[in-house]
């Protein structure tokens, strides 16, 4: 059984709502980041901004909370900013990491509950879609020269055209996926949207490489079991508040 973590919040409304919901489910009172000092116990918090990034460098055990991979809350990206439409989607909770590997042996029930259809794997495409990390992600994960390094790596295994896309791009991801052969990112959740659209996603992040690496750019796979496992790594705020999320999570380690 895992030890119940302290729940650390920033002054941002997202942190208060999301971490507050998790704290309610484990019967803990949230601690404002300005007053938090105890790193002897596990901690749980949301995102990598407003000081939370420092928590992960100091904590021995942590639970990272962020937007889920499937049916997450709707977000709109405009002029370098993110706007949240609602918080009715799913949020991932990961122990001692920031991403789920997609590995496991979970049942299909939580995925089936989402009513998501997976298209057949693409057998043609005009280009490889390269998803550039945001400024904050680049800084936190030390990915400053990631685009150039990744283009060089991709070019070792294919001569297909590469289209660089980011949150400021004027052409929508959905439109580009219609013509893409493969999707490449370090750790973007959009990679799972790509696979649902029939476009294999390839990752450079060490946790996610097992799904598809760049070496497999010409023969990427879309494994339904990955989605079954991811569905058991994400939860709604109601599931957090009720304690259902923690009851499952604490049994994993």
Provide the gyration radius in Å: 18 Å
Residue stretches low in confidence (pLDDT < 50, at least 5 long) are none
Mean pLDDT: 93
* Terminal Cα span: 6 Å
- The level of helicity is 25-40%
Counted by DSSP, the helix tally is 10
Main structural class: alpha/beta
Report the order of strands and helices: EHEEHEEEEHEHHEHEHEHEHH
Q: How many DSSP E strands?
A: 12
Estimate the strand proportion: 15-25%
Count structural domains. Answer: 2
Envelope shape: globular
- The strands making up the biggest β-sheet line up spatially as 2-1-3-4-7-12
The major pleated sheet works out as: 6 strands, mixed
Molecular structure report:
It is a single chain. The protein folds into 2 domains: 6-100 and 234-249; 127-229, Rossmann fold, CATH 3.40.50. Helix content is 28%, strand content 20%. The chain contains 10 helices and 12 strands. It has helices at residues 13-25, 52-58, 109-113, 135-140, 146-154, 173-177, 190-196, 224-231, 237-242, 244-249, and strands at residues 6-9, 31-32, 43-46, 62-67, 75-78, 81-84, 91-95, 127-131, 161-165, 180-185, 201-203, 234-235. It has a 6-stranded mixed beta sheet with strand order 2-1-3-4-7-12. The protein is globular. The mean pLDDT is 93.
């Amino acid at each position: 059984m895992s030890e119940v973590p302290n729940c650390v919040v920033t002054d941002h409304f997202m942190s208060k709502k999301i971490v507050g919901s998790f704290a309610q489910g484990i019967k803990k009172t949230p601690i404002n980041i300005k007053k938090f000092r105890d790193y002897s116990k596990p901690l749980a918090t949301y995102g990598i901004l407003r000081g939370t990034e420092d928590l992960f460098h100091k904590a021995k055990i942590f639970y990272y909370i962020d937007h889920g991979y499937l049916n997450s809350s709707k977000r709109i990206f405009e002029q370098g900013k993110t706007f949240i439409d609602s918080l009715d989607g799913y949020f991932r909770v990961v122990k001692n990491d920031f991403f789920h590997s997609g590995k496991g042996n979970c049942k299909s029930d939580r995925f089936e509950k989402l009513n998501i259809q997976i298209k057949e794997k693409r057998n043609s495409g005009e280009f490889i879609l390269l998803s550039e990390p945001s400024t904050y992600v680049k800084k936190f994960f030390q990915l400053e020269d990631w685009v150039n390094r990744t283009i060089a790596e991709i070019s070792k295994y294919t001569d297909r055209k590469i289209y660089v896309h980011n949150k400021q791009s004027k052409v929508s991801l959905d439109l580009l996926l219609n013509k893409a052969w493969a999707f490449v990112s370090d750790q973007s959740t959009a990679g799972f949207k790509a696979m649902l659209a029939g476009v294999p996603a390839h990752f450079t992040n060490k946790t996610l490489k097992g799904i598809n690496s760049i070496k497999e750019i010409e023969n990427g796979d879309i494994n339904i079991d990955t989605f079954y496992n991811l569905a058991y790594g994400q939860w709604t705020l109601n599931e957090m508040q009720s304690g259902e999320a923690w009851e499952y999570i604490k049994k994993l380690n």
